[in-house]
Amino acid sequence: MFAALRAPSNSAARTFSTSALRGAPKSGKAIVSSLQAGTKMDGLSVFKDVPDPVALPEDQYPKWLWTLLDKPKGVPVAPEGERNFMAERKAMRDKNRSTIKAANFMKTT
């Protein structure tokens, strides 16, 4: 059953996690903050004796912060001839979830 998982990969290149800087916006896309630097953000302090935070200039925030609201890219596509285990795993989870819901529905009726 798991023979395909134990088989060596066709690609000789080893994959590592990508840097957060790769997902940073391109230089052509201007980043504009909703607050100007030095603006006091009322109500954001969660501690009683700590003053409310003050907005910093945009260049003092990490580059990955500006990509948090971008839409996710989705499930990566497997190269030709290889299996996409992430997509298969998601399909199995969805199928199992619907099977459990159907079985639970039959128990209540």
Written overview of the protein:
InterPro entries: Ribosomal_mL54 (IPR013870). The longest helix has 24 residues, at 85-108. Among the domains are: 31-71, no CATH class; 78-109. The two termini are 37 Å apart. 26% of the residues lie in helices and 0% in strands. It is mainly alpha-helical.
Architecture blueprint of SSEs:
Elements: H1 3-6, H2 85-108
Number of helices: 2
> Structural class of the secondary elements?
mainly alpha
How would a crystallographer describe the biggest sheet? Answer: none
Approximately how much helix is present in the residues? 25-40%
Mean pLDDT: 78
- Which band does the percent of strand residues land in? under 5%
Q: N- to C-terminal separation?
A: 37 Å
H-E string:
HH
Broad shape: flat
Low-confidence stretches: none
Strand tally is: 0
Q: What is the gyration radius calculated from CA atoms?
A: 23 Å
Region (Disordered): 1-28
Biased composition (Polar residues): 8-20
Keywords: Mitochondrion, Ribonucleoprotein, Ribosomal protein, Transit peptide
Main location: mitochondrion
Short overview:
With 109 residues, the protein is mainly alpha-helical. The chain is built from 2 helices and no strands.
Key features?
109 residues; mainly alpha; 2 helices
